[in-house]
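Researcher: I'm comparing several assemblies side by side, and this is the next one on my list. It has 894 residues spread over two chains. Same procedure as the others: predict the full complex and return the structure.
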Amino acid sequence: MKNLNSSLPGSVVAAQGFLASGVFCDLKRLGTGKGSDKGRKPDLALIVSEVPCTVAGLFTTNQVCAAPVKVCRPRVAAGVAQAVVVNSGNANACTGRRGLADAEAMAACAAGHLHLPPEHVLVASTGRIGVPLPMENVREGIRRAAGRLGNAPEHAAEAAEAILTSDTHPKEVAVEFKVKGRRVRLGGMAKGAGMIQPGMSATGGRPAAGWHATMLAFLTTDAVIAAEPLQAALERAVARSFNRITVDGDMSTNDTVLLLANGLAGNPTLTPRRSPRAGANSGFEAFQAALDFVCLELARMIVRDGEGVTRLVTIRVSGAQTDADAEWAALAVANSPLVKTSWCGGDPNWGRIMAALGYSRARVVEEQVDLGYSPPGGRRVLWSLRRGQPTRATFKSLCAAVAAKEFDLHIRLNLGKGVAIRYAADLTEAYVDFNKGDVSNPAALGG
Amino acid sequence: MKNLNSSLPGSVVAAQGFLASGVFCDLKRLGTGKGSDKGRKPDLALIVSEVPCTVAGLFTTNQVCAAPVKVCRPRVAAGVAQAVVVNSGNANACTGRRGLADAEAMAACAAGHLHLPPEHVLVASTGRIGVPLPMENVREGIRRAAGRLGNAPEHAAEAAEAILTSDTHPKEVAVEFKVKGRRVRLGGMAKGAGMIQPGMSATGGRPAAGWHATMLAFLTTDAVIAAEPLQAALERAVARSFNRITVDGDMSTNDTVLLLANGLAGNPTLTPRRSPRAGANSGFEAFQAALDFVCLELARMIVRDGEGVTRLVTIRVSGAQTDADAEWAALAVANSPLVKTSWCGGDPNWGRIMAALGYSRARVVEEQVDLGYSPPGGRRVLWSLRRGQPTRATFKSLCAAVAAKEFDLHIRLNLGKGVAIRYAADLTEAYVDFNKGDVSNPAALGG
């Protein structure tokens, strides 16, 4: 991407004026949390701005939503925040009134240590559902996290580590771009792994086609931008990234994306152009492009690191009667257990893809369907089916196309102009093994 | 069930005047099929009535549907048939015009050997998608099957074996009941295993909530009943049985249920009662009860013998705002990979069930939901959640409830009077292993 330096370290502390930390406070094992962090995975993170920020956020549309989501929605709508406190190991979901009080207390505790108004602190949780937060540990964790805040990449890395659950590695990105000569930075961290098919909105109203992780993403920027355009930019970016991924089709009770903008870059205020004349190179567009890039990078990292995942398949549907039809077609293929297991085996099984298209809610005419494969983002497509009939592509060449760890699946319905993209994963024995749980160890059973 | 002898042998030949056979003609390996049947699994079945029958049928609502489905729909609508020819190993789906001609030729070939009008012969296929039928083998198989027809239970067993794909054992049932003193019999055989979530209708129009197997079921009866009430009775029975099962949520291109009634029992013609006064013990109601029983028995056998399945879970949703809501709630839970893997592990994980309910299309209020377990059909429910909160049931007792190979999951939404039942399966490593295929052996890759 031109005008975009995408190899910046530091993720959430890359932008000016942001601090972060991560600590271990034993939220899974319900121990004391007062011991040393050494050798124990951190499970509580803090992200703090030196000055108040405008804020944007999107949350799960699951009707059963976690206490931190309920606490954050009105705070994000108010448009101002300065810190985020996040824990892993416990989702604080399905925990009733106590859960709500705990989420508020978690924010208030952080606010106390940081000398902020409690309503300027946001909160997020991920982990087991239905177990009350061990608040003594949480409070001790927040106290220590507040004492360790810093703006070095290691501080961001600590925080990025602390929000993980079944993820195998942290997910961090940061970029830098120019707005009227001023250097603006945007960075973020995310976690995913299982229960991943986000369908997030600001209010809880369902997005058009997403109906089914806990995925969390925290983004920070030093751009000068008001809350309203910030929210619009985040909604656009999430619609093209996090809301387009699926690992297992299960939508979490806790999905949350938060974006804080502290304005320390000192750029002219970013506003969306009102007319096409305003020019394509406005600062807002550069910001949107940077945000789109960061969200898509993090979203794809989540799919790649999904539970048991060995393949990232980008499903590109075109020629659907409507965009909604294209989304339904892509979603049916992305979530078909038979298609997903065929990817796991490196099997270019088009019959299963055709069956999934046929039972999707999209209009499909068998004799019109083209199916093919390309490397990620590739324009040269190896077509497997044309107008419903096998091409002369050899089985060997098709196997080679789907043997890759990442490939694009092109589906042309040839019925209209509807398009959709979905980032999907395969289904492996490792996913089943991980999620079947261990009933001999109730504390290990995830939410 | 009173007035119902359900331990009859012979399935499709239990009723008077029906004959069956099964032969091996090497449809998978595309060999010659002319060798001995010994040691090789049969793959072609014939079911024939000595006299013409009224007929009823339901077919997949997948928009991509197999050639035999296209051939059968108008023949079933015409109301008369006398034979069914079925092959396994090849689905004759996504095979274009050639596939349609092959399905017609398959019926015509059987008609020739049986001296019947071709339009009185129905046809069904299951197996790999997208490969033309090896017609030489099919013709040879039909010739030999026509020469082996018989009405002993062994003949039915041969046919029931021939229609299997990844099933581990044949599925057969037969019952006998009395109508005004006359003995009436009804029997059937079925196959399932993978790509199982039927949503069948007579015309291809979608049923209300089923949107996502190849499952095949063939039913025969000697009852005297016209085609129209026969179709009505079959639609009711399928709505309560086959259309309520899910193994993997994938709906096949080939799902077919056929019911032939040859009238040889000589009972007074069965007609649905027009008014409540006609009495509850009419012959039609006895017939419907028998048909409901046979379809549900076969449907549950399909789930138990699904690919890799170790558990049959009957999901009973009540108190939904509408029946449609109840269906959506049941379906979301039945198809959630995280819920299904928890069953595989014998883990009574209610958080995953709540998350699935929350993202379903049904209205759900967290604080209203009751969840519990009972033995199959049991009335004493061990409640795990009441009004969204964990009960005092111990983890050990809940684990014991879901350790059973078959149990009922009771979900009360407490929002209205909508109810639904769904027969679901767990998701195991064996399912993934089976379906990931073996690309070193293209012929073994299933459809």
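Model: For your comparison table: The longest helix of chain A spans residues 283-304.
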